[in-house]
Structure formats: C-alpha cells, structure tokens
Amino acid sequence: MKSFRAMTVTLALLLSTGLATAAPVLRGDILVNAPVVTVGDMFDDAGALAEQPLFRAPLPGTTGSVDLAAVRSATARIGLTRFDINGLSQVRVSRAASIVDQTLLIDLITQDLRQRGILGQGMTANIQFSGQPETITVVASDAPARLDGLRYLPGNGTFSARFTLAGTDRPLDLSGSIEISVEAPHLAAGLPAGTVLGPEHIVMRPLPIRQADAQGVATLDQLVGMALNRQSRDGMLLRASDVSVPLAIAKNDLVTIYYRQGPMTLTVKGQAITGAAEGAPLQVLNMVSKRVISATAIAPGAVEVSTAPVTLAGL
Fold first, then answer.
1. Going along 134-280, which residue ranges are E strands?
2. In the 8-state DSSP scheme, what is residue 57?
3. pLDDT 10s digits, 162-188
C-alpha cells in the first residue's frame, strides 16, 4: 500500500515539474516563411523552445530534405535531446515564396499612371518592356514588388521604371514603351444615310490616344439620337462631323402648312422642296397655289408660316 502511495506521489511530482510532459513530435513535411527553421517549425508540441532556430531554410520557392542525424545534431546544440522521431528518417522542408512576373510589374505601372491622372476613365495602357523580364521568385510577401520610380515621356511613349523586390536590396530597373488608348465609338454594322443612331448601333473599341486626338473622336452624347450624314460601313470610327440633327421633314415629304394668328388657324396641303430638322427653315410648295414659300419645320409632316394675312390669301 505504501509502495502504491509512493508511486502516486512520484508521478504527481513529475507532472508538476514538467518531466512527464509529452515529448515534441517530429514533423515529416514542413513549410516555412522565414529564412531560418525553428523548433516550432520542425516539431509539434515544441513547448518553450518553439522560437529557437535550428538551421537555415532553403531559398524561397525551393524544397530540401534534412536527415535525422542532422536534426539530432541541431537540436542537441540547444539542449533538446528527447523527442519522438515519428517513424521518420528525414524531414522535407519547403520555403514559401512570391512570384514577380511581367503581369505584376505592368499592374504596378498602370496603377501609378492612374494615380497621377495620366490614365483617365475609359483609358488603357499597352505596356511593352524592352526585352522580356524574367519571372523572379522572392520571399513570401503581400507586396512582392514595389514601384519606386517611373519616368514616362508622352512625346515618344517611352518609360523607365525602378522596382524594389521583397527580401532584396538590389533594385530592378526596366524600360520600354507605353501606348495609351481611349475607348472610342465605332459603328456596330453598316447603316444607310439618315439612320438615327441608338446605343445598339455603337460599340466602344480602344483607339490610340494620338489618333483619337488627331481625328476628333465624338462622345456617346454627341451621337445617340443623331442621324448619319452618309452611308457608313461596319466598324467605322464615329466623329461629330459624321452626324447631324435628324430631319423632321425630308425632301418631297407631303406636309400640312399651318398659319396661326390669335384664335385663327389656317391650313393648306404642301410638299417639301428641301428637308429640315425640327425648328429649322425649309422651302415648301403650296399644292393649291403652286407657289413656293418659306416655312419652319415644327414636327414630322407639319410646317408653319408667319406670313401676314394679306400675303397668306395669295398662298
């Protein structure tokens, strides 16, 4: 009985002093972010020694193996001699990494151009490097690359840029060209002259900004609801000069001629000699008197004259 009590007391003392705690368990496959591998990386239940370094990690984006003898040697140096090898003869160690590629570098330049107001709404930048930049593996980071400086010359479209890469002090210098384009309206299909344009007739396509400035590209507000001046082909770039206010009355249309004075309204049938938009002047043939008179288009099929009553009688 006394022997049983002694064993119980001894076990309690061992538990209280931590001597009976579970030994750290070796992991077979680990992934690290830092340049060194710690006890906490290498073992489960590492305890107070978790932050102690053991050996260098492999280069970012690479994997290496550490045999059990090397693990024992490294842990012995920090006083960790008792651990569960978990049936392993070696440990596979991988180091996390971030990738810096052409897409990321272009995005950084594009963001800078937008922040500086060089790229506005509806504008895009076609960025070409002088020589294809290599894909670079750097330490794992939320910001694997940073644009430190961008020199852009709009006159010839060239640029030079300096980047800083995560985990390195050596800058990355690149150069190339930038072609800025703006969304410009084009005809979605060929249309005859006089077609009144709606949103469905127009598609927006990128156009180099130099060409857009030289040709005077129109905005959608200048086009929708306006009529084509001439027959136009599919894909034609639309300019303000390509459209005009739609005709309310076309040449040879039959119209009603109105004269109003106070409560009196007189009407007579006529035929348009010229076409006109609403509110614009035109020439009309009075079908009764066969005289040509000046009138104003007030609506499709309707014109108005302001002739005095004596003159009107001769219409």
1. 136-139, 145-153, 158-165, 172-187, 202-208, 227-228, 243-244, 247-249, 254-261, 264-272, 276-277
2. P
3. 999 999 989 999 999 999 999 999 999
* CA distance linking residue 293 with residue 304, whole number of Å: 10
The CATH fold of domain 2-95: eubacterium ventriosum atcc fold (2.60.480)
315 contacts 307 by C-beta, under 8 angstroms: yes
- Whether the CB-CB separation of 141 and 100 falls below 8 Å is answered with no
CATH classification code of 183-244: 3.90.1210.10
Look at the pTM and tell me if it is higher than 0.70: no
For domain 248-312, which CATH number applies: 3.30.70.20, 2.30.30.760, 3.30.70.1280, 1.20.120.340?
2.30.30.760
Tell me: the pLDDT tens digits for 94-106? Answer: 999 999 999 999 9
Nearest alpha-carbon partner for 232 in 223, 209, 273: 223
Residue 132's pLDDT is 83
